């Protein structure tokens, strides 16, 4: 790809070479502190810094992902970059142990296992039926001690009712 000489000069002034590891560490804008990928504005377009480096020194990535061999997101050394699909990127990430997916929750906070028989999906999350039963029994015991009954309305809202003697 062709870039203006001003954009190339600005890019080359924006990283520091680390000879010990061979990385070129991006020192300008990093819009998201969680992922550390650099950002670069050149020729009326915002680029990820490593994509710009690949386009400048190797060639147009043509819709593919630009991956890092060195696993350093802020590295812009074109010798550390290679092309791949999103599937290649996911395989690379998983093989190197950088998969950040949430661990699967297999039990409630009280240790009851989430099984099909013990799980209800309510309000966008899992609910433990054993915990719900224990909570309900506590409500019923308090109601009985107060001379009341505890039940549910048609819309499953708790309902307290004074018993008539």
What does this structure look like?
The protein has 165 residues and is of the alpha+beta class. It folds into two domains: 5-95, Homing Intron 3 (I-Ppo) Encoded Endonuclease, Chain A (Alpha-Beta Complex); 116-162, no CATH class. Helices cover 27% and strands 25% of the residues. It has four helices and ten strands. The chain has helices at residues 5-12, 49-57, 86-95, 129-145; strands spanning 15-18, 23-26, 39-42, 45-48, 65-68, 81-84, 119-122, 125-128, 148-152, 158-162. The strands form five sheets. A two-stranded antiparallel ribbon has the order 1-2. It is elongated and about 85 Å long. It starts with a helix and ends with a strand. The relative contact order is 0.09.
């Amino acid at each position: 790809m062709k870039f203006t000489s001003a954009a190339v000069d600005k890019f080359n002034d924006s990283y520091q070479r680390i000879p010990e590891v061979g990385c070129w560490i991006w020192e300008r804008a990093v819009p998201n502190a969680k992922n550390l990928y650099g950002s670069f504005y050149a020729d009326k377009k915002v680029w990820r810094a490593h994509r710009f480096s690949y386009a400048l020194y190797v060639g147009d990535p043509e819709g593919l992902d630009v991956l890092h061999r060195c696993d350093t997101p802020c590295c812009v050394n074109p010798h550390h970059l290679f092309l791949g699909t999103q599937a290649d990127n996911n395989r690379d990430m998983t093989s190197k142990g950088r998969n950040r997916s949430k661990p699967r929750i297999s039990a409630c906070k009280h240790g009851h296992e989430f099984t099909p028989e013990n799980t209800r999906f309510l309000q966008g999350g899992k609910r433990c039926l054993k915990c719900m039963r224990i909570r309900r029994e506590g409500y019923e015991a308090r109601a009985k001690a107060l001379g009341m009954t505890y039940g549910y309305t048609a819309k499953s809202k708790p309902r307290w009712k004074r018993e008539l003697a």
